[in-house]
Design brief:
Layout: H1 2-18, H2 30-41, E1 48-49, H3 50-62, H4 73-86, E2 89-93, H5 101-108, E3 109-113, H6 115-129, H7 141-162, H8 167-205, H9 213-250, H10 252-258, H11 281-291, H12 300-323, H13 333-345, H14 348-359, H15 392-397, H16 413-439, E4 448-449, H17 451-465, E5 475-478, E6 484-500, E7 503-516
Parallel strand pairs: 4-6
Antiparallel strand pairs: 1-3, 2-3, 5-6, 6-7
Length: about 525
Amino acid sequence: MESEQQARGREGAAERRLHLYAYLQPREHHRTYLEIMRLFTATLLADLSAGEVASALAAAERDGRIDEGESRVENVIARLKQLVEWGNLVHGRREVVASSITEFQHGSVRYQVSKLAVRVQRDVDELLRVPEGAREVSRELLPAIERGLRQLGVTLSEAVMAERHGPASARRATEALAEQVTTLFLQHAELAATVRDFYAYLGHVVTRHHLDPDEIAGFRNLLVEYIQMVVEDVLRYTPAIGETLATLARSRSELLRLLGAPAFTGESADERVERSRGRSAADWQELTDWFVDRPGRPSQVTALREATARAIGALLASVKRATAGGGPLPGRRADLLKLAGWFDAATPARAHRLYAAAFGLYSARHLLPAPEHDADDEHTPWRDGPVTDVTVSVRSRGDRGARGRTSRIVDDPITEQSLLAEARHADRRRAEAVAELASAAGRLESAVLSPDALGVLCELLTMAMAQRERVEDGGVTADPVRGLRVLIEHRAGHTTRIASTGGTLTLNDTVVAVSAS
């Protein structure tokens, strides 16, 4: 019951945090909310009253950044209360000198920005400043990360030795160690962010169907030069980084102890305190997973290599399609752009005539009643209405003919019943195999398993071994449906032999335990 309450509490906290983004919705007064949040995040420890906020918003109203009348005190108070309800602002209070009750009400209630709201607004301002083009990958950070990891191993050894020479030497060595760890994780965070942004841009590019000559030349350079350089740099430095991380993993406990990780200070970790990166084992595991593959968990370097191969293939196909004219007929892109220019320069009356002449669509009489609901109405401009998808054949060749014929829907009850029977038979065999393993839980090495039971055991053993970082680690996994649990532990010199009708499975230096929940 307690775990369910904790889960509900986490879900409620996540929902409350999502309310912090409510003021960014394109709704009424969203520009006012944005100006208020920028005002509170412009300075450190901002503590403002409704009157001070209204005075600051007056300049924004004169410049046209917010709607007229939004700087009035009564409107500002309503906006501030709404931001407090969403969790972006919190109440503060201090003594004021006022000449009237109204002035006291406007000045005594103070507002401050919450920590998470500062992050939201910072991300929003950064997002609004980001250009639409590709973001350059910080390739120079890769050799810096490799050098930083090598130097970190030397500094860690010096810090351990400095503890024997007194508190002063130990403090200086620990400060140098913390400085290198913080720099290392900042460099990796910047590298990972630039890689994600660059490949997100590639994902947007590969969906393009029409490219002009300048874009084709730019994407050719992107393919031949930049992507190749990025991948080569990553693959060049990854082996050295992986070896250094493996070496540091053996002394990770000492590193966390010197950095003051809560697990080694004897004090309970305060979840409300956000520590710097690199002060927990999870941070180092995340850094390792970015560069090093694990069984069942490919690294981000592997994902980057695979994404590069897919992006290059897709971009080459787009360039080939664009240069080939989209098929046996010449492309219609230039004609469509010329027609769009005519529409842009035409008057409303001329645009109607142009539309009828270009597409052969004239005004029509509706002899049937109007539909009950339509996506558009007479109050919605065409630029704000729903976007209609245009097929590739229409965009490239102006051909609206259908391709192929609609396939018939075949109802095959015999095949359906045979597939269902096969699925029931497979489920019954797995249930029997799990029951056999559960009955042999206490005598696994003396029992003789069937091929199905050995297959289920090997499947669970693979999942348990994938959790290990080193050979000395253990692992545990369970069948999520039937609850069979398999635990593996490392024990030097012990050999586990599991016999079956098809052969014997031998595991060296390993102990296997099976239990049924």
